[in-house]
Amino acid sequence: MTDAGTPAPTASSTTRRLEVGDEAPLFTLPTADGGEVSLEALRGRSVVVYFYPAAMTPGCTTQATDFRDNLTPLREAGFEVVGVSPDPVTKLDGFAEQEGLTFPLASDTDHAVLEAYGAWGEKSTYGRLSVGVIRSTVVVGPDGKVVHAAYGVKAKDHVARLLRTLGVTAGA
Fold it and tell me: Annotated catalytic, 18?
């Protein structure tokens, strides 16, 4: 129990982070534009799947606009980008419109995909434990296998570090 008398947050003991070489879990999720995105439909392409806590918050906006600003060099290097959060589609639609985001933002309100990717669990924010989205990025290769996985990343400068890791030259 916490001091407030509520149960302390717990993470599932079965939550496992993906590692290089793992088969990426398949998913199909609704998107901000009213459609859906499916990892299976993207097979044959490399996909950057990034998980973020909440649309329209400062850190998530920084990360999303960094991906937006580097979308051309990523695509030229053969990478698609998909953002996943537990936000409802209506909030994602407003976020995409407000920030001019042109890559899919997917809604995972039941956390099934977040959990399958190890991006949902116990985390510490400003010294306080909670259960929620662990800001993470998983890069899936054309064969459906994980080629890069990073958990607990910081929003600021994350995309620049990812570009270096992937050998992609940043946009202007």
Answer: no
pTM beyond cutoff 0.85: yes
8 Å CB contact between 162 and 49: no
Domain that holds residue 151: 28-165
Contact status, residue 150 vs residue 137, Cβ threshold 8 Å: yes
Per-residue pLDDT of the chain (172 residues; tens, 9 = 90+): 333 333 333 444 346 899 999 999 999 999 999 999 999 999 999 999 999 999 999 999 999 999 999 999 999 999 999 999 999 999 999 999 999 999 999 999 999 999 999 999 988 777 888 899 999 999 999 999 999 999 999 999 999 999 999 999 876 4
- For residue 172, being part of any structural domain is answered with no
Per annotation, catalytic residue among 60, 106, 134, 138: 60
- In this structure, the chain runs to a length of 172
List the CATH number of the domain containing 81: 3.40.30.10
